[in-house]
Design goal:
This protein is α+β, with helices and mostly antiparallel strands and about 425 residues long. The protein is about 30% helix and about 30% strand. It folds into four domains: about 1-90, Rossmann fold; about 115-185, Dna Ligase, domain 1 (2-Layer Sandwich), CATH 3.30.1490.20; about 190-315, D-amino Acid Aminotransferase, Chain A, domain 1 (2-Layer Sandwich), CATH 3.30.470; about 325-415, Glycinamide Ribonucleotide Synthetase, Chain A, domain 4. The structure holds adenosine monophosphate and glycine. Adenosine monophosphate binds near residues 115, 140, 150 and 185.
């Protein structure tokens, strides 16, 4: 038996801890720093790599990293140097997410389908370039900007103001020292996540996120307001195309360039006329995609994590998935993704039906009460025999939860229904 340390504090990390704690091979699951729903919280920040390594060493832990920040800082390299077991990509491999420019150039030189683009550090050159294109653009800050450094523009005026925001006003700090201006691709988005050991890549169940704050994809981008799995948008033909032309090609091209990619590889895909284009890579599970995907797992996730770390995933059988749909509705604090109140008491957990599970994100426990402590607060996740019934079950469960400034989208999963 081994202990597991899950690094992170969001809904994704609660889902991973929940699933890993069901493994007969796992003794105790710790979460650092965790949230109001996770057990055995350890008060170490996700960026305190030495602190995490000390804890893992003293407590005989296999470590699983949820968010991108510690991966970009090189947590996996540090743990490997100390002979500590860890699941996730190295710092070099994490560049696929930590530098959008690195990722775009990687895709270009390896012929992985993505939107046309140019890179700028000089605002005037960027503005001049706008005159030379006759399509809508997306302006992206190069570095990590907590999911906010991407501005999807409608027309030239918005593109000019996006360039000013990132490159002149430096709203995202040094993450915006360089920008990408790329073609806006209008299509349907899906998340395609696979698990790799550097050689093979096992696809996880398909899913779709809902990034905008309001119904019908209105309002600003967020970390994700809800997700469901599987998504009918990714049919077998498309899944095969993405698996071969994006995922396997990425893993093989990384190897060819001397970088072994281990961990979750998440391709944010835009589908236009049946063809997939990579909008972005993430080197971790999606949040909230992780919540419905995890609910559908009918296998021991710990086996897959340890085999990924050891480089022998091909020895495992294909993972089996519950033949049901899962829907996660994110309950947020009103005002998110801008400012929002905190420390409001949340009630109703005892009334959640057995087909549902409430994953915590921005919560904390205080004197046996659960208080809101972030923008995305809970992910109410339900199974159902069809997508329609999973949606009804998730919203029925979400209704049971109350706090003063609770807010959620009312249309999670609806886009999927229109494809059935
Ligand atoms: P990213 O962080 O790069 O995934 O971008 C955040 C969101 O911006 C994506 O989920 C898309 O909704 C949108 N987006 C990014 N790039 C493009 C693009 N080239 N065309 C259209 N939408 C895009
Ligand atoms: N849900 C999108 C992400 O995790 O980046």
């Amino acid at each position: 038996m081994v202990n597991v340390l899950v690094v992170g504090s969001g809904g994704r990390e609660h889902a991973l801890s929940w699933k890993l704690s069901q493994s007969p091979k796992v003794d105790k699951v710790f979460t650092a720093p965790g949230n109001g729903g996770t057990e055995n919280n350890v008060n170490i920040s996700v960026e305190d790599l030495d602190g995490l390594a000390d804890f893992a060493q003293k407590n005989n832990c296999f470590t699983v990293v949820g968010p991108e920040a510690p991966l970009a800082l090189g947590i996996v390299d540090k743990f490997n140097e100390k002979n500590l077991k860890i699941f996730g990509p190295s710092k070099d491999a994490a560049q696929l997410e930590s530098s959008k420019i690195w990722a775009k150039n990687f895709m270009k030189r390896n012929d992985i389908p993505t939107a046309r683009f140019e890179i700028f550090d000089d605002p005037q050159n960027a503005l001049d370039y706008l005159d030379s294109v006759d399509y809508n653009v997306v302006v992206k800050a190069d570095g990590l900007a907590a999911g906010k450094g991407v501005i999807v523009c409608n027309g030239k005026d918005e593109a000019i103001s996006a360039i000013q925001t990132i490159l002149v006003k430096k709203t995202f700090g040094d993450a915006g020292n360089r920008i990408i201006i790329e073609e806006r691709i209008d299509g349907i988005e899906a998340s395609y996540i696979a698990l790799s050991d550097g050689e093979v890549a096992i696809p996880m169940a398909s899913s779709q996120d809902h990034k905008r704050i309001f119904d019908d994809d209105k309002g600003p981008n967020t970390g994700g307001m809800g997700a469901y799995s599987p998504t009918p948008i990714v049919d077998d033909t498309l899944a095969k195309k993405i698996q071969e032309n994006v995922i396997e090609k990425t893993i093989q091209s990384m190897t060819k360039e001397g970088i072994s990619f281990k961990g979750f590889l998440y391709a944010g895909i835009m589908i236009r006329d049946g063809e997939p284009y990579v909008l972005e890579y993430n080197v971790r599970m999606g949040d909230p995609e992780c919540q419905p995907i995890t609910m559908r797992m009918d296998f021991d996730l710990f086996d897959y994590f340890s085999s990924s770390a050891e480089g022998n995933l091909s020895a495992l059988p294909s993972p089996t998935w519950k033949n049901q749909s899962a829907v996660c509705v994110v309950l947020a604090s009103d005002g998110y993704p801008e400012s929002y109140p905190k420390n409001e008491e949340i009630t109703g957990f005892d009334s959640i039906p057995s087909n549902s599970f409430v994953f915590h994100a921005g919560t904390k426990k205080q004197d046996e009460k659960i208080l809101s402590n972030g923008g995305r607060v809970l992910g109410v996740t339900a199974l159902g025999d069809t997508l329609d019934s999973a949606i009804s079950n998730a919203y029925a469960a979400a209704e049971k939860i109350s706090w003063a400034h609770k807010f959620c989208r009312k249309d999670i999963g609806k886009k999927g229904l229109s494809y059935l």
